[in-house]
Amino acid sequence: MATQEAAGSSLQTPLPNDVDLNPLSGVDFSELEKSLRRPRTLINVLLSGLVTCMTLLALIPLFSVVWLLLWRGGSKLSLALFTQLPPAPLERGGGFGNAILGTIIIVVLAALLSVPLGVLTAVFMAQASEKNRLATVVRFAAKVLTGFPSILAGVFAYGAVVLTTGGYSAVAGAVAVAILMLPTIMLTAEDALRMVPPKMKEAAIGMGATHTQTVLMVLLPTAFPGILTGIMLAVARAAGETAPLLFTALFSNYWLTSGGHFNLMQPTASLAVLIYNFAGMPFKNQVEMAWAAALVMVLMVLVTNLIGQSLSRQQIQQEE
């Protein structure tokens, strides 16, 4: 008992006055306040303001184009634009419903051709060793194709598809557009796959998963947001291409449907070619319709990107 009381009294003994338990003692809080009199704070504020001003200046062309499209094309928007066919010269009214449908069909076909091939190629490049010559050559070719003139893709598709099948078609246009989409999908998907932590792959292999299972169940789901972003960028570029479609899909003033089903092996209208054709006409109705078509194209690309970003965000939240 005496021993316990002695121990208790020793625990209750106050600490010396020179020992201060406050970790913030001796800190001058006035020195931590933000003041423009300090050179570092002043430079930080000035550079932040400069970056903000440059960002706003860079956004001026974008917002000016959007405002111009809303001003010139917004007044022309109506239900008839989405349900009727293009008008003849000097004819009032009309629409470009066939061009919207043709654009969607061409982009979807191009995505079906380029997305599987691009993602599989990206998996090969991401998993190949640095000494793999084939992966190096494929990566170099993809980087070269990013600067490939779009009109050359149209010429290639013209020789490979149009001359072979004997006519312009949506399929030929999809082939030309897929060539332009492929390098963007390949490179962005490869970067997304390389950003997956190696520990996740090692853990899957350590649990007995094969390389195929690791890719399908670990790498691709984890890199899905980055891959989807690359696909959206490729789709946005494909929707606005004009030169390749002039050599492949050409244009049409009629619907693609024939006998209750789609006929993809005939000339196909698209928004990009319609804008190109109508913008140079000396008729007010066609020029106004070109502005409206440009606005619709921008809105389609914007909605597609928003949907892609939403899916990516949901995927990230599920993983967390």
Q: What's a concise summary of this model?
A:
With 320 residues, the chain is an all-alpha fold. It contains 13 helices and two strands; from the N terminus they run αααααααααααββαα.
How would you sum up this structure, described in words?
The chain has 320 residues and is mainly alpha-helical. The chain has a domain at 97-319: MetI-like (MetI-like fold), CATH 1.10.3720. It contains 13 helices and two strands; from the N terminus they run H-H-H-H-H-H-H-H-H-H-H-E-E-H-H. It has a two-stranded antiparallel sheet. Helix 4 (97-127) packs parallel to helix 7 (170-194). The longest helix is centred in the C-terminal third of the chain and has 36 residues, at 284-319. The radius of gyration is 30 Å and the shape is globular. Residues 6-11 have low confidence and may be disordered.
Multimeric state:
single chain
- Count the E strands: 2
Looking across the biggest beta sheet, what order are the strands in? 1-2
Q: How would you spell out the order of helices and strands?
A: HHHHHHHHHHHEEHH
State the helicity in percent bands. over 70%
Overall CATH architecture of the domain at 97-319: Orthogonal Bundle
What does the main sheet amount to?
2 strands, antiparallel
Distance between the termini: 56 Å
- Residue stretches low in confidence (pLDDT < 50, at least 5 long) are 6-11
CATH class of the domain at 97-319: Mainly Alpha
Number of helices, counting only DSSP H or I runs of 4 residues or more: 13
CATH topology of the domain at 97-319: MetI-like fold
| Rg, Cα atoms, Å | 30 Å
Q: What structural category arises from helix and sheet content?
A: mainly alpha
Overall average residue pLDDT: 86
Strand content: under 5%
